Amino acid sequence: MKRRRKNKRICFGFTNLVLGLAVVVGTLVVTQTNALQYLKGKLAGGNAKSEQKAWQTAIDDSTNITANSEETTKTDDARPLITLSKAVTGKMKKGIMLEKTGYVSYFNYDRNNPDWVAWELTDAEAKGNLNRKGFSFVPDEDLPMVHRVTTYDYKESGYDRGHMCPAGDMKWSVDAMHDCFYMSNICPQVPELNQRSWERLESACRRWASKLGSIYIVCGPIYKKKTPEYIGLDHRVAVPDAFFKVVVSLKKDKEKGIAFYYENTEENQPMETAVRSIDQIEKITKLDFFSELPDDVENKIEAETQLWR
Fold it and tell me: Cα–Cα distance between 3 and 211 in angstroms, integer?
């Protein structure tokens, strides 16, 4: 009699254990199902088919979350993106596309200068605090030896080594700061332009990036004469007659653009007098900027001449 009661207690305990495990497993399944369905943004309506569809969709979405995390970060505001290597199109003279940390450029072999340099500047990057001290101008080893301009080529030339993508925009990364000091990112600039008018525009771009969250920038040299002046002791480096910079903000429903033209001279050039439309710069340079954008957006932002504040 005692043995039977003992057996009953054992069976009852085992039954309770099984039921308890079933409840736990069921709860986990329901919780996971709801969590995955929540990721999709909707719950199934109690219908067997809809529950199965929601379950499968949620599983698929959750599997892709990690794989698509970078894309989601870039498209969470639904703004159209610009591929830096395609930011500028048009007929390019013999040269090479260079992809560096933080920027992309096209280097012209005939002039030993970049034809253009493009980069995106975000709010976080504009607030970088890396000190440029300790970084030196260096030849670009990605170029053939005959085109590896050095600082020696600027010796006693009277021109500054003018950054196209500025060090002030690359303070967010040691690698980015190092790469912006490649001589392939440099053009001969008159000191007055490099240290004042051009620098004021660079500072303004950082303000705009902080205010708008992100901007795209393309800049480069302009040659008016068929045969430009050259400097260089070991390499022939063309001296630009002027410089351009185009800036675009793709903040959703507030897309806008602006451009600037600066003479490579010692004259003070306020931003107000340097303002141009992107269309005007395209006409001067024979280059096409941001052709990946939808036509309505591109046409709108490239016609604007209102100076940003």
Answer: 81
